[in-house]
Specification:
Homodimer. One of its GO terms (biological process) is histidyl-tRNA aminoacylation. By secondary structure, this protein is α+β, with helices and mostly antiparallel strands. It is built from 15 helices and 16 strands. The strands form three sheets. Strands 1-5-6-11-10-9-7-8 form an eight-stranded mixed beta sheet, with helices on both faces.
């Protein structure tokens, strides 16, 4: 290998990209905890069956995109392509049903073998929120409100449009499925090969097809709204009323579907045009049949996930960290004392780097290259007086500060930088 490069569809994350993603994660964790969610971290790989059961054997993710391999024990393992399946498995594995309703949030890397494009990688990162055990439309409203608050705090609410639809209850879906099969069977010769397969196993997924011929047929397909039971209509009306009450704008999108049978009631996506064709930045819905399909008891659930990279791309700019302080000890006694001073300042929250090498001019040059705000110079004279020379690297002014007062002076300046 002549050059060491990351595998196609992966990348090294550092600098501004890392700051953008960290800001998304931290904001999400803070918002989720205000909504009473507890953090969960599931393994990045699971037995393949976990994802085949939840994503469906005919889905593009399972048939074309999963990273699946046989490990040294002969088990078939898959790197997780999404997080909900692992959370549902963890709910069953750890007996969480005994806790009643659980609210869980998490984040981490996901893996899909697909064509890389802007904001989409083969190793990508998501944030995820799930409410398991609550069958009420209020849970859907809570999750949508949390998503809206996250986007608002990131400054992205106005850059996205919320699309919502109802997938009805099982009776609604059964009626609609029969209508779709009847309609598409009359036009079977015009369907793509993929959609002909879906017609037999999962006709709702035809509505998601990107094939131009399929899309033309979908335009005249039966409408889900015409097959909803009164109970399903009431559920969706409650969700929409909640959105209105909370001042969350939305668009009713009847073509927004989820193909698998365990989905029910609310489906939603926050969509932007700022990232090109791949415009969904946050999506989710209710999955009342998922836990049962995995072998557990009938258990309602609702959740959403969002791409951290995509949200990071939408930010106007990454939050800048506080500018560092450079501690420059001149001489061996000062170097020994600097270790203690550095520990104490860092314990107080000062972002600080210690530079032990070279003459004073070289060290100050390095401090300027690091965009340091202050240089704290510690020499024999300063030590004798119990102080340090504090140089303002913006103005060049320098003054003597008592060591006991140093932390307060530096922290006051840091607060001014961050606006706190």
């Amino acid at each position: 290998m002549s050059k060491l490069q990351p595998v196609r569809g992966t990348r090294d994350i550092f600098g501004e990209d890392a700051r953008r993603m960290a800001h998304v994660r931290r904001t999400f964790a803070r918002v989720a905890e205000t909504y009473g969610f507890d953090e969960i971290a599931t393994p990045v790989f699971e037995f393949t069956e976990v994802f085949k059961r939840t994503l469906g054997d005919t889905s593009d993710v399972v048939t074309k995109e999963m990273y699946t391999f046989e490990d040294r024990s002969g088990d078939e393992i898959t790197l997780r392509p999404e997080m909900t399946a692992g959370v549902a498995r963890a709910y069953l594995s750890n007996g969480m049903a005994a806790q009643g309703t659980v609210r869980l949030y998490g984040h981490g890397p996901m893996f899909r073998h697909e064509r890389p494009q802007k904001g989409r990688y083969r190793q990508f990162h998501q944030i995820d929120a799930e409410i398991i055990g609550d069958p009420s439309p209020q849970a859907d409203i809570e999750l949508l409100a949390m998503a809206w608050q996250l986007l608002t705090e990131l400054g992205l609410a106005q850059a996205t449009v919320l699309h919502v639809n109802t997938l009805g209850d099982p009776e609604s879906r059964q009626s609609y499925r029969a209508a779709l099969v009847d309609y598409f069977s009359q036009h079977k010769d015009r369907l793509s090969d993929d959609s002909r397969t879906r017609l037999e196993r999962n006709p709702l997924r035809i509505l998601d097809s990107k094939d131009a011929g399929d899309r033309a047929l979908v335009e005249d397909a039966p409408r889900f709204a015409d097959h909803l039971t009164p109970a399903a209509v009431a559920f969706f009306e409650t969700v929409c009323a909640g959105l209105g009450r909370l001042g969350i704008p939305y668009t009713y999108d009847q073509r927004l579907v989820r193909g698998l049978d365990y989905y029910a009631h609310t489906a939603f996506e926050f969509i932007t045009t700022a990232l090109g064709a791949q415009g969904t930045v946050l999506a989710g819905g209710r999955y009342d049949g998922l836990i049962e399909q995995m072998g557990g008891p009938s258990t309602p659930g609702v959740g959403w996930a969002a791409g951290i990279e995509r949200l990071g791309l939408l930010l106007d700019q990454a939050p800048e960290p506080a500018r560092p302080v450079f501690l420059i000890p001149m001489g061996e006694p000062a170097a020994d004392r600097a270790q203690v001073i550095a520990r104490d300042l860092r314990a107080r929250g000062v972002r600080l780097e210690v530079d032990y090498r070279g003459n004073l001019k070289k060290r100050l040059n390095r401090a300027n290259r690091r965009a340091a705000r202050w240089a704290v110079i510690l020499g024999d004279d300063e030590l004798a007086e119990g102080g340090a020379s504090l140089r303002d690297l913006d103005s060049g002014e320098q003054r003597r500060v008592a060591l006991d007062d140093l932390a307060a002076v530096l922290l006051a300046d840091t607060a001014g930088q961050t606006g706190h």
